[in-house]
Amino acid sequence: MIRRLSHRFGEVLSDLGYPKLSDPRLDNNLMPHVRGLPYTAASSGGLVLISLAWYLAIWEVAHEQDGRRPGLLIIDSPQKNLGHSADPDDPDFADTGLVENFYRHVKQWLAGPGVGAQLVVVDNSPPEAVAGDIVVRYTRSRTLPPYGLIDDAFD
Q1: What is the per-residue DSSP string for the chain?
Q2: pLDDT digit string (tens) for 53-92?
């Protein structure tokens, strides 16, 4: 199982376009490693992609094998430290294509082996490629509904 998850982790990182990808793997404790280093040595943008790949690898393999798992994966802010939000000192992760690659990977998997799986992505600025998949857009104005997920909770 660890080999299968580790292999999928590498596949997902490759699909996401992880810069200078080498030696992606999960160790026996399921701790991610990339470029021969533990995930804790990665930059802020690297940490985001590694985390996304780790979540997706476990979720995808569990779904494909009909394993015991929650029926839903929620990912909040997949663009943090990527694309336009990248740290200026982390130019490898300033590529907006990384965000598009994330959405492309998820859409392809959900349309194929992931049929029936459920994913909720909370994103302030999703790419145009997923405009047709957006279920709800919340505003930042109390006077312009929907203002927030919990309609009677205000700042």
Answers
A1: -HHHHHHHHHHHHHHHT-TT----EE-TT--EEETTEEGGGS-HHHHHHHHHHHHHHHHHHHHHTT-S--SEEEEE-TTTTSGGGS-TT-GGG--THHHHHHHHHHHHHHHTTTTT-EEEEE-SS--GGGGGG------S-TTSS---SSTT---
A2: 999 999 999 999 998 877 789 999 999 989 888 888 888 8
User: What ranges do the domains of the chain cover?
Assistant: 2-125
Q: Which fold has domain 2-125?
A: Rossmann fold (3.40.50)
